[in-house]
């Protein structure tokens, strides 16, 4: 009976509690709604929290009066201001759309990333503006001579044919194997893709193949990625990727090429972290760890590789506003100038840690060739103001002529190789560029050497021509080229 009589009373009390809870919840909701959404809620809040018989707030002047000390008044005024600021921020936040809030979060993350990189942290989106000037005569002109126009058209036709094959069978790959019709990427570039696209950008533009140029540009913008855990050849990546991007920028003015070139250049900078500043031949783009080719004379760096960075790195400094690029390649010259050079010649191998020559092998062909080319072109690129490059080039050419240039019994002029004091009477295929190089530099030759150097250039070019003309071009020879 006790349980029966207690039942209705207990049920009534639960109902009362439920009703009271609803009333209390409604009151809390009403209070918070007033605080956050009423136009004058800041006054309501200040009245609720700060009004008392001991302290009175003047809401118009922002002063506090009452019986408390001056220090207490300052503290209370600060608390009231902080609360009002918090309310304003809360109301603004609640009134924003979710998309706006998301964008603000992304912007804040980007700011934190930029700050973590530091002032020289490689933020290519903050590159300084540069005044772009389109080079005159790059496109839009036809030669007046009909024979020249015919040859020009044939060259463009050959380019269209080869580019069409690359697009069809190997788009995005570094190379096309023409027999198997397969894309291929050599280990010189590791996992880096698109060497053929980047390398051909300037040619596409000069030949006015604008649709193909735009397609290649879109690929660069969307797919050219340098944030890879892969080891690359610093030399090859510089001349193919950095050089290709820079020339495409100077021809077209498209800033995507400048940004990509600077980004890649920044990823190559760790290669210079050696005792002498002579860069490693190989570099991991992600870790920044470098090394040299294991076959290169006891871990040496190669003259043609570390000596063939100057042109691109000088322009990276110009386009990025970062002098470090130029400082790195100028330091290479300083190291070479300090070293004793046998008979004025530059050996092909240099240890980047000890700063000493490796094996005494001198060649104007493979392992040495483009170092000499870049000295001459650095002088020309500077509008012939880079006196250091000029002197180094003509001094080197004089040493080459004295010690390496010989004439065969048949009257052919050639450039031999030098190994530890002994001449090796052979001239490799890569040495044939020297004819053009010597002719290019003849105009600035010291003294009365201009005519002599032009004759020397012509003789070397003739030797190279004869090497082809006298070679039996059988089917097996052609396929092996």
UniProtKB/TrEMBL annotation:
GO cellular component: endoplasmic reticulum; extracellular exosome; Golgi membrane
Enzyme class: hydrolase
Listed GO MF terms: calcium ion binding; mannosyl-oligosaccharide 1,2-alpha-mannosidase activity
Residue stretches in coiled coil: none
SUPFAM superfamilies: Seven-hairpin glycosidases (SSF48225)
Keywords of this entry: Disulfide bond, Glycosidase, Hydrolase, Membrane, Transmembrane, Transmembrane helix
EC number assigned by the record: 3.2.1.-
Entry-linked Pfam families: Glyco_hydro_47 (PF01532)
Cofactor(s) of this protein: Ca(2+)
Transmembrane segments: 18-38
Location of the region described as Disordered in the Swiss-Prot/TrEMBL record: 115-151
Disulphide linkage map: 432-464
Gene Ontology BP, a term: carbohydrate metabolic process
Top-level lineage group: Eukaryota
InterPro entries in alphabetical order: 6hp_glycosidase-like_sf, Glyco_hydro_47, Glycosyl_Hydrolase_47, Seven-hairpin_glycosidases
Family named by the database record: Belongs to the glycosyl hydrolase 47 family.
Name of the protein described by the UniProt record: alpha-1,2-Mannosidase
Lineage: Eukaryota, Metazoa, Chordata, Craniata, Vertebrata
């Amino acid at each position: 009976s006790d349980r029966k009589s207690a039942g209705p009373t207990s049920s009534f009390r639960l109902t009362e509690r439920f009703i009271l809870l609803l009333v209390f919840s409604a009151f809390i909701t009403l209070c918070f709604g007033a605080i956050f959404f009423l136009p004058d809620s800041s006054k309501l809040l200040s009245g609720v929290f700060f009004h008392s018989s001991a302290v009175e707030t003047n809401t118009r002047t922002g002063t506090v009066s009452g019986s408390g000390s001056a220090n207490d008044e300052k503290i209370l005024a600060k608390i009231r201001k902080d609360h009002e600021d918090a309310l304003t921020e809360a109301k603004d936040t609640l009134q924003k759309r979710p998309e706006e809030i998301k964008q603000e979060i992304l912007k804040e993350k980007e700011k934190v990333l930029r700050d973590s990189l530091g002032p020289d942290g490689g933020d290519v989106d903050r590159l300084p503006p540069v005044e772009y000037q389109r080079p005159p005569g790059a496109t839009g002109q036809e030669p007046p001579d009909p024979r020249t126009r015919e040859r020009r058209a044939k060259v463009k036709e050959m380019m269209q044919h080869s580019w069409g094959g690359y697009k069809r069978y190997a788009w995005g790959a570094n190379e096309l194997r023409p027999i198997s019709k397969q894309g291929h990427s050599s280990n010189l570039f590791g996992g880096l893709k698109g060497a053929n696209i980047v390398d051909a950008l300037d040619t596409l533009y000069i030949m006015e193949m604008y649709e193909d140029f735009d397609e290649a540009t879109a690929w660069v913008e969307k797919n050219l990625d340098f944030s890879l855990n892969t080891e690359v050849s610093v030399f090859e990546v510089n001349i193919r990727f950095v050089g290709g991007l820079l020339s495409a920028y100077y021809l077209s003015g498209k800033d995507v090429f400048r940004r990509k070139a600077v980004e890649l250049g920044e990823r190559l900078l760790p290669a210079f972290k050696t005792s002498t500043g002579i860069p490693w031949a190989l570099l991991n783009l992600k870790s920044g760890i470098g090394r040299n080719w294991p076959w290169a004379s006891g871990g040496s760096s190669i003259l043609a590789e570390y000596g063939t960075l100057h042109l691109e790195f000088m322009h990276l400094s110009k386009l990025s506003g970062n002098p470090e690029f130029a400082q790195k390649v100028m330091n290479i010259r300083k190291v070479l100038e300090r070293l004793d050079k046998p008979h004025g010649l530059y050996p092909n191998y240099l240890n980047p840690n000890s700063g000493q020559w490796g094996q005494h092998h001198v060649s104007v062909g493979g392992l040495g060739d483009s170092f000499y080319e870049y000295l001459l072109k650095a002088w020309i690129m500077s509008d012939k103001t880079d006196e250091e490059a000029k002197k180094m080039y003509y001094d080197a050419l004089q040493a080459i002529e004295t010690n390496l240039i010989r004439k065969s019994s048949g009257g052919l002029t050639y450039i031999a190789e030098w190994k530890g004091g002994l001449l090796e009477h052979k001239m490799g295929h890569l040495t044939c560029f020297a004819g053009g190089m010597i002719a290019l530099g003849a105009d600035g030759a010291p003294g009365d050497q201009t005519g002599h150097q032009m004759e020397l250039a012509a003789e070397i070019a003739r030797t190279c021509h004869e090497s082809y003309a006298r070679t039996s071009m059988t089917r097996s020879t052609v396929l092996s080229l």
